[in-house]
Amino acid sequence: MTTDPKPLLRALHGTAGAPPPIWLMRQAGRYLPEYREIRARGRDFLDVCLTPDLAVEITLQPIRRFGLDGAILFSDILIVPHALGQKVWFEDGVGPKLEPLRRIEDLKQLSLGGLDEALAPVYETLRRLSGELPRETTLIGFAGAPWTVASYMIEGGSSKDYATAKTWAYGAPKEFDRIIALLVEATSRYLIAQIAAGAEALQIFDSWAGVWPEAALRRWCLAPAQEIVRRVKAAHPTIPLILFPRGVGPMYQAFAEECGADALSLDTTVPLAWARDHLQGKVAVQGNLDPLVLVAGGATQAEATATVLDALGSGPFVFNLGHGITPQASPDNVAALVEQVRAWRPKG
Amino acid sequence: MTTDPKPLLRALHGTAGAPPPIWLMRQAGRYLPEYREIRARGRDFLDVCLTPDLAVEITLQPIRRFGLDGAILFSDILIVPHALGQKVWFEDGVGPKLEPLRRIEDLKQLSLGGLDEALAPVYETLRRLSGELPRETTLIGFAGAPWTVASYMIEGGSSKDYATAKTWAYGAPKEFDRIIALLVEATSRYLIAQIAAGAEALQIFDSWAGVWPEAALRRWCLAPAQEIVRRVKAAHPTIPLILFPRGVGPMYQAFAEECGADALSLDTTVPLAWARDHLQGKVAVQGNLDPLVLVAGGATQAEATATVLDALGSGPFVFNLGHGITPQASPDNVAALVEQVRAWRPKG
């Protein structure tokens, strides 16, 4: 794959090269005035995700501005519970809200039957995008990991400590397995269909993985990720997968050895030398600049960026953030970041 | 120190022994009806902390019920900003609120001068407790670590992503150093005075350490911890210190090697075999049962407890939770936990 014209695909397939490719989690977002302009038209967030004209335009905004190596589908991880039949809505300034699952019987109200139809606009968005991107830009599809999506489905929105979802899991682990199994099935189908629609790489976001002890993490995050990767690889063996098990600390090593993904996205807390020594020999790594550095900019940003590049840039590596970019980030700082990454070469 | 009659002190000084000592973070708290009864009298939370009659009684409640090996002072980490002159109050159902620091000039409104007087009731509480505890029970004092306390002082309360505090740190690191330095000074004095008042061991809570990349973590969490430990050890060389840098993942190893504390408290995500192999040979370890397991109870609790004991119980170890106990925990489950820990012996 070293001859692939797309730098992001080369890196995800394990080839090192300077400069590394770069894209940014939540790169199409509120820090961009052109994004805020579209959102200011007042349409519901989920409606925007499901309107190909708008989702295509928003996906392309940061590509036009910064020429990033990856264009990630503009969507949301909660599109899957929506497609399963759960009521999902977004409240301004509050975040996502869902009619929560409370008992295992509530699972009967969800169905895989309507998945394809509900997600058809997403596939349409991907099809259009694959015709519109520059030839060196990789189209990235994505989904939430089962645990992270389940946490929203059970908590009914964001949560501080996931007490309801975790207590359910600890109190009735076999019931919890069923919720996770449904999401493994839905997520695998969704990702496979994204590839059919034009996605060239995939990222699975397990944003709330960092709340479990090892045994539970293996059961409800690592094993489901393995199974999704297995199914996607069985259908499309050459499409690289990136897994983002945010906050799992030393357990990143188990994910590198066992999850089957081509790359791991590293959160901001992962120390760089440790990642190089324990992860990068097994998978490509992606990350992990603190998104708040893009608010500060200046020397702080330049130094933090150089630190990441110097530590990880000589192996298979994708420059990215350790979490999604924040609304307070400055587009000028993002432009400076891209310029610095593009200019980087290994020392010596 | 192997002849110390207090099991918790023996473990913190590096001696292994079965069964390990046990205490629980936030063991005096809302899960106990006798605690809720006192709080229902309607006094302000900070006022309760600063009223020795009440703070002594609340500290003793879990000792009477469960015979734990450590009695941790009932107080709050925000007592330090209060003693420095910042306005701090607690809103029911919301949590702590502070009149936030917004500019470095606001630091002038804070002063070390009133520290001793403001904290005198805490020292009185400790003096009374040291006369009332069973002889095998260790009196534990505590404070918040500078970064964690600073985050509240700047954010004005709890925060989801610490954007204001972190952006300040990244944008004006030398100013941020000054805030941290003030807290190093206040915290060191406070901890030293707690020992003089009867504390036999200390825990420093860096509850929000897990949000920084390595360089910032070293500057604003690890180095300040080193300095506090150094000052406390200079004054009281034999009093053991426990540091809880929650969420720092692989960086726990750097803390074990460099922070100077006698023990590290492990959050729930730290894998047990990794902790045994990389930390326990350097420091005593404490932790790390998921507090939500105490809500579920039953087989889940028994298995999770056995897993922790079997992995870490043969080295210097203190059984504890990975974070504070939650209001939903059942006192019966806590009693069963203590019984199981007391009955544990190494296998083979």
Folded structure, characterized:
- The structure is a homodimer of 348-residue chains.
- Chain A is of the alpha/beta class and 348 residues long.
- The first copy, chain A, has a single domain (7-343), classed as TIM Barrel.
- Chain A is 48% helix and 12% strand.
- Chain A is built from 15 helices and nine strands.
- Chain A has helices at residues 7-12, 33-39, 45-49, 52-66, 79-84, 115-132, 146-155, 163-171, 173-196, 214-235, 252-258, 272-278, 293-296, 298-312, 331-343, and strands at 70-72, 88-91, 95-98, 138-144, 201-206, 241-245, 263-265, 284-289, 317-321.
- In chain A, strands 1-4-5-6-7-8-9 form a seven-stranded parallel beta sheet. Chain A has a two-stranded antiparallel sheet with strand order 2-3.
- In chain A, helix 6 (115-132) runs parallel beside helix 9 and helix 14 runs parallel beside helix 15.
- Chain A is globular, with a radius of gyration of 19 Å.
- The mean pLDDT of chain A is 97.
- At the A-B interface, helix 8, helix 10, helix 12, helix 13 and helix 14 of A face helix 8, helix 10, helix 12, helix 13 and helix 14 of B.
Secondary structure elements and pairings:
2 copies of one chain form a homodimer.
Chain A (H helix, E strand, L loop, with lengths): L6 H6 L20 H7 L5 H5 L2 H15 L3 E3 L6 H6 L3 E4 L3 E4 L16 H18 L5 E7 L1 H10 L7 H9 L1 H24 L4 E6 L7 H22 L5 E5 L6 H7 L4 E3 L6 H7 L5 E6 L3 H4 L1 H15 L4 E5 L9 H13 L5
Parallel strand pairs in A: 1-4, 4-5, 5-6, 6-7, 7-8, 8-9
Antiparallel strand pairs in A: 2-3
Helix pairs in contact in A: 4-6, 6-9, 7-8, 7-9, 8-9, 9-10, 12-14, 14-15
